Amino acid sequence: MEAISHLTTALELLTTLPDTRERAQQELTLRVTLSMPLLLTGSLASPEVLATYARARELCQQLGETRQLFPVLIGLRAFHQMRASFSRRASWGNNS
């Protein structure tokens, strides 16, 4: 729980910084890091897990980040598998 609190605070503090590539990279790192404590303290199918992975996926697309994309997609797949939501749109966490 303490890790979740610190990581969430860090994400909130990032919103005060200018919207730069470096800030987006920091947010991506924080969101990927936050996903594990969320999974360990809650449920794989919680809305917080979806929000974290979906935003991380957006950031991966924005940054062209392929190194962190794979664990993000695996997390999204696991989330939707636990919820038995298998439509393509829901499975990948995007709105397009």
Features:
96 residues, mainly alpha, 73% helix, globular
- Could you tell me the radius of gyration in angstroms? 13 Å
Uncertain stretches of 5 or more adjacent residues: none
The structure class reads mainly alpha
Percent in helix: over 70%
Biggest sheet layout? none
Mean pLDDT: 86
Distance between the termini: 34 Å
- Overall 3D form: globular
In percent terms, what proportion of residues is strand?
under 5%
In total, the number of strands is 0
The secondary-structure element order is HHHHH
- Supply the number of helical segments: 5
Plain-language structure description:
The protein is mostly helical and 96 residues long. The protein has helices spanning 2-14, 21-41, 47-63, 69-83, 88-91. It starts with a helix and ends in a 5-residue tail after the last helix. The mean pLDDT is 86.
SSE diagram, text form:
Blueprint: H1 2-14, H2 21-41, H3 47-63, H4 69-83, H5 88-91
Helix pairs in contact: 1-2, 2-3, 3-4
Task: Provide a brief overview of the structure.
The protein is an all-alpha fold and 96 residues long. The chain is built from 5 helices and no strands.
